Every structure is written in structure tokens, then in C-alpha cells.
Amino acid sequence: MSGLVTLHGLGRERLTGILDKAEGYVGRGPSTDFSGATVTNAFFEPSTRTRLSFERAAHRLGAHVMSFSPELSSASKGESFKDTILTLTAIGTDVLIVRHRLADAAALAAGWSARPVINGGVGSREHPTQTLIDALTLRQEFGRLDGLRMAIVGDIRGSRVARGHLIALPTMGVELTLVGPTPFLPQENPWGVRTSTDLDDELGDVDVVYLLRIQAERGSAATIPSIAGYARRYGMNAERLSMMKPTGVVMHPGPMNRGVEIDDSIADGERSLVLRQVANGVPVRMAVITEALEGGR
Amino acid sequence: MIVIRNARVLTSSGIEETSVVIDGDTVAAVGAEPEANGHQVIEAPGAWLGPGLVDLHVHLRDPGQTWKEDMVTGAKAAAAGGYTALVAMPNTEPPIDDRVTATAVAERAAGIEDVEIVTSGALTKGRSGEELADFDGMYDAGIRIFSDDGDSVPTAGLLSRAMAYLLDLPGALVAEHAEDRSVAGTGQLHEGAVASRLGLAGLPSLAEELVVARDLLLAATTGTRLHIQHVSTVGSLDLIRRAREEGVEVTCEVTPHHLALEETAVEGLDTNFKMYPPLRGRDDRTALIAALRDGTVDVVATDHAPHTTAEKEVPFEEAPRGVIGLETAAAVVSSKALGKDPELFFERMSIAPARIAGLSRHGRAVEKGSPANLVLFDPDRRWVPAGFASKSSNSPFVGMELTGRVLMTIREGKITYEGGSG
């Protein structure tokens, strides 16, 4: 069984291997490699990019896709998470992709389903495929990951993407700085990375500014007095872009709140990698699904 | 008659290796053996014999949630853990908050043979934190300990009125679960490195300490006896120490799991490590052990909180808080906190809790004429907890090798548990 519940414990070689495999899928047309296989999207939380790119990735590999939405299912009648996972497994699936607001959902599902589970984003804990997508996008842009400096800006405390990055990007040589107002920075810093409350101080040193959305659904908006104040202190605009190195780029995992953490001119500008990140979702997820299907055989 | 030979006995003059004779519900002799044959003789070299353990803090779930536990199974678990008396918390369904419920529960408890069960009563009506509960009615039904355990009384005004009233009822004690909900929020585990790494909402030490500080001030002002439940932080210990120096009449308890485990145990998000207060950091645990030894902490109380496997086998954030503790407490406390010191062990596990709860037939040194509420404990026996007498098995110590096992529990001269050979 070779799903992807967490990037924790994966070494540089293994991570690079997944990126290489994903690179091989870039621009590749449809195949029938896994015709007859079933991939189930078990998304207990809303998602656009992740859900659709997993779906397209599965289709590109010739697999069927089953989709589960809690609001259209027995979960809305109070069926427990465990029973839902057991039910999806009993219906029959070769891989289960789990997205959930709770931090241990993917690990629990892997224990209960006896099928490879791919973590499609859980809690504020980890979003491993997003981290791989961003690593691939950066490697394409800079030709390397080693020595790159990234400032992750925003609601780190509530961000699964930031925690996934903290697990795996330093392993691949990326140096991270966490930037945001104190209520958005983690209370403890078990990763031993640099933290800062002043974005302008950091801009000149970094290759990448990685912007995060305020996680209103996790109550983060209530921990700061105003969104407008946040936008003034941390929003990425033309002036701040000019403080970066000429080679510096801006990334965002989406969905973007334009005018808050990112201005239109930046989001749609030539230094933005946002749409390339989205596009890379498909080959990265093809690589991850392939490993899961091969491991499950 | 039962004769227990060669145990290390807690007598009124300290630990003595001697024989104890039990006749009826009383200790008939210490140091002398009966001449006649035919009595039950137990050879117990190396084992500790002392007053049965007393737990100031258990949840028996009875009435209302008896799928988790009830008085009968809770008493069996207590006996297996060496306990002869329990104080049950009032957060049952319905909560114990008036004369009728208190009387009904006391009557049921009186029929339980394995252990003496006294119940505590709520501080506020329905445990809602809004108005005072029926103190007089509950007091008449025998209740002396009042607590909204599971919640703090939310406002200082209400708690100060409760304290003022209870001051007039001799022997009454206010016991507080310290948790400021406005700070605790949706916290799941200690706000430390593990919570930050996993991205789960933390429960800061501050949530406990704010309430401890507030309650100590109120107790100092009203003069009411105060007991702080399940203390878990360095800061709480400092506040209690300082208040005591200033003459506040305060006692406090610590749980076995806070003495033995730290926040790192929660890393795997096993729900049998989810409880309030949460497992804290290394500094807190070290300070709790030191405080239990030096007397800052008066007693160990288990906060035995049964939940079924189905209730616990859910994502961590959806799991109910609480773990069972009655059957493992003696081992955990003797081996992991008190360095196998029998006198200190019986002081913190039996004598002090019996004194705080006013249980005159418990927590007494073993001497001629004392009540035969006793425990025989082998401090060196190794075992691995697996099955439990409790209806629930939500213990953080499942599968962990423990040192120290209860060999026999005797309540009022009757053997309520005999085992520990496995």
C-alpha cells in the first residue's frame, strides 16, 4: 500500500523521485495505463482546484472516478466518518483521496480502509500534493530548489499548506521564513525556521513570496481586528514587488482574495506563478495516483 | 478472619514489616497472630498494606450515561485499582443539583458493596453556570463537595456567591475545574510544540491559570475552603503555593496521567490521550511530580472518565475528553512519581483524600480497631494493562508495561478484589 498520507519522514531522494515522475507527465496526453481502476474523491470539505485536478489526473491515467460530497450523502444524515470510509471502501475503490477539516482524517481513513489513501488536504496540518506542486513549479522556474528562499506570508497558524511546506521544502533545500502578524504565526516554532512580523524587511532577501489566504472558516479572521489593516501591512502590491529581486516570483495556492493578500496587478502579472501552480496540479497528482495504484496492486 | 503476613504495613508509627489480623469489619490485631486455625492466611512479603485508596474525582456516568460506566462497574474498577472510597462527580444526566437527585443517587450508592461511593453536587443549577444550585437540599442528602466539574463556574460573581453561601455549611468544599473557555476556545491539546506542528488549536496553560488565580482570590476573600481539581501547570502550582503562604485554605489534586505523560504522547492523535486539562510539557510534568512530593499537591485523583470505544474511535477533534484511571493509578503513581515510597504513597492516595472528603472510615493507619478498608499492593510486580473491569477501556496506559500491582482490596473486612497474579 503506497498512498500519501504525509510527507513527514520522506527523504530528499524520495521527494525528488515524485517530482521527476510528475515532470514526466507534464504535457502528456491521455493513457489507458490504469483502465479499470477506480479512484474515489472523498472530499468532506469544499474544493475546486484539488478536487478537479485529482479528477483530471485520474482520467488521464484511464481510471474511473467516484466522487463523494458530504452534503449530497448520508454524512448529512449523521453517518460517522468511519462508517463513510468503510462504505466507500466496500463499494469498491482502488485509491481513496481524502480531504477533511480534521487533522487526522487521512491517517484514520488509511487505517480503516485498507486501501491506499492520498491526503487531499487535512485540517490545518498538511496538504502534501500542494507542497509537491509548488516544489515542482519552483524547480521549473529556477532549475533548482537548493538554496531558494521563500517567505510564506499570512495565516500560518491556520494553514495546512504552510505546514506541508514546513515538513518537506526544507528537506529539498528551500529556506523558509514565516511572515505575518503575531496572531497568525504559530505559537511555537518546532521547525526552527525564521519568523518575522515585517514583510517589507524580508522582501529583498527572498526568491519567492508565497501568499496565503486568511482562513475565515477556521476562525482566523476573528484573531485580527480588520482585513483592511492586514491588507495594508501584508498585501502584495506593485510597490512591494519592486522591493524583491528582479528574479523574484509570487505564488499562491488559491483561492485568492484579490485586494486582500494579493492585488490584481500581482495576481495577473508576469511574476505570478499562480496558474502554473494550478496546471502542475494534474501531473503531480498523476504521479501520486500512479504510485498509489501500483502500490495497491 | 483474614491474616496478612509479612507485608510492609502502614501503622501509626510508620512502615513496619508485620502481620495484620482482620476480624469482621475491623483490624483485630497488628503484630500478633491468632492461635486458632482455619482463617485465611495471605503471605505478602514485600507488598505494601495500607488504607484503601480514596479517589476524590471519578465519573461514574450514573445516572444517564450508563453505557459508559455505572456504579456497579465503576465500583469493580475501583476495587481492582485498590480503592475503597470514591467521590463521584455530579455531571451525570440529570446533573446532581438538588435534594431529590442527590437523595436518589445516595440511596443507590449505599447499595454498592465493592466501594464506598459518595457523590458530589453541582455548584450551579443544571451545571449551566447561571444560578446557584440547591445547596441546602444536597447538603441534607449528605453532599459535602460541590463542583461543576467539566466546566468552571463562568463568572466570578456567581462563584463568590456560592462560596459565601457554602461557608455557612460546615464541612462544605468548593472544587473547581479550572478552564477559562474564552481562552480555551476550541483547543484540543496543550498549546505547545505538538499543537503548532499538527496545526490543532491549543489549550494554553493560561486557560487554567486564569481560573486558578481568580478562584484563589475569591477563596481568600470569602474564607471558603477551595479545592482545585486536576492541576496541570507550573503556573497553577506557583499560584497555589503563594496563596497558601498567605493563609488561603486551598487543596489540590493531580492526575496520574499528568504525572506520567507529556504532550509528545499526543503526537499520534490517539484519542485515549485526549483529556482536559491536556497533557502538558516536560517542565509542567516535572514540577507536578516535585509538587506532589513536597506537598504543594495534596492528593492524586484519577479523573476516571469512561467513554466507549465507539465514542473514542473518531477523529481527535471530535472525540470526547477524558480517560479512565482507577485500575492503573496505583502503579503509575508509585512507579512514575513517588519513587516507591509507601508512606508518601498512602498519604497522597488515601489519607489526604479521605481527610479532604471527610471520610472517617478511610485513610487511616492500620492499627488495632481501625476499619478494615485496606489495600495490599505489590510495588514491584510488572504487568501490561489490557482488559478492564470498567465498562470502558479508554486508558492511555493500554499496552504499556507498568510496575506495581494491586494484589487485594478489602472493604469493611470483605475482599472486593483479589488478583494481580496475571
Shape of chain B: globular
Q: Could you report the average pLDDT of chain B, rounded to the nearest whole number?
A: 96
CATH class of the largest domain in chain B: Alpha Beta
Low-confidence stretches of chain A: none
> In angstroms, what is the radius of gyration of chain A?
19 Å
- Please estimate the helix content of chain B: 25-40%
Strands of chain A, count: 9
Which residues of chain B form runs of ≥5 with pLDDT under 50?
A: none
Strand content of chain A: 5-15%
Secondary structural class of chain B: alpha/beta
As laid out across the biggest beta sheet of chain A, the strand order is 7-6-5-8-9
The number of strands of chain B is 18
Textual characterization of the structure:
The complex is a heterodimer of chains A (297) and B (422). Helix content of chain A is 39%, strand content 14%. By secondary structure, chain A is of the alpha/beta class. In chain A, helix 2 (49-60) crosses helix 11, helix 5 crosses helix 6 and helix 5 (128-142) packs across helix 11 (274-296). The N and C termini of chain A lie close together (8 Å). The mean pLDDT of chain A is 94. With 422 residues, chain B is of the alpha/beta class. Chain B folds into 2 domains: 2-48 and 369-380 and 387-418, Urease, subunit C, domain 1 (Roll); 52-357, Alpha-Beta Barrel (TIM Barrel), CATH 3.20.20.140. Chain B has helices at residues 71-80, 99-110, 135-140, 156-166, 181-184, 193-198, 205-222, 234-245, 256-260, 282-294, 309-312, 329-336, 342-357; strands at residues 2-11, 14-23, 26-30, 40-43, 48-51, 53-58, 83-88, 116-119, 145-146, 173-176, 189-190, 202-203, 226-228, 250-254, 299-300, 374-383, 402-411, 414-418. The longest helix of chain B has 18 residues, at 205-222. The model of chain B has no long low-confidence stretch (mean pLDDT 96). The A-B interface holds A 80-82, 100, 102-105, 107-108, 123-126, 157-160, 163, 186-191, 219 and B 186, 191-200, 202, 204, 269, 313-318.
